[in-house]
Amino acid sequence: MENDFSYVGENLERIRENVREACAKAGRSEDSVRIMAVTKTVAPEIVNCAIEQGIDLLGENRVQEFLSKKDSYLKSAEVHMIGTLQTNKVKYIINDVSMIQSVDSEKLLGEISRLAVKNGRTMDILCEVNIGGEDSKSGIAPGEVRGLLEKAAHTEGVRLRGLMTIPPPSDSDIFLGRMKELYDSFAEEFHLDVLSMGMTHDYAAAVRMGSTLVRVGTGMFGARDYSQKR
Ligand SMILES: *Cc1c(COP(=O)(O)O)cnc(C)c1O
Question: How many Cβ atoms sit within 10 Å of the Cβ of residue 26?
Fold first, then answer.
């Protein structure tokens, strides 16, 4: 059947159920976790199906792809940048996203601040942590987090909200636990309220470990087709 995207609603129902269950196991209220739909490679009309089913948060990885799709999205969802962001591209998204989750350097922080102030707004940010110390992943080392948080807390135009991570796929539980410990060690001092961790393969575990925001792509939209250039 043409345009039958009902699988998106079914997937979302299952994800919600799993999040509810994980919250119950951890003794948390289910509204303490936000579910983000990660949209990379997914056509806007399919993303809009998720929004129609109640998704109010989209995660974008690539600036170029986001710019080509943003006007087609239904307006009821906010957008967070979650992908590695080059400093020279902040200007393209500064007024179209409500949070940048992938802040991993003082240089990037500085540019977000400059453009936020120039545009008369405040940008929510998360610092991205490379909790597994993998060469292939972006984010700062756990030992560098305090320095970046202190800097961010005193930077004009940005509101520091928390931490984000992509743990190594193997031993995910160990690193989710470490990430929660790291988050807890800074949460009070820096007034953090967002811990963004958990993807399709580990969001239930991440919720049990204390994640407040899970970022789900494949589990919501199916396997990605990278051959479709957008
Ligand atoms: C792609 C991506 C996700 C979602 O990954 P899935 O495994 O498809 O759920 C989450 N976070 C980031 C930063 C991503 O790039």
Answer: 14
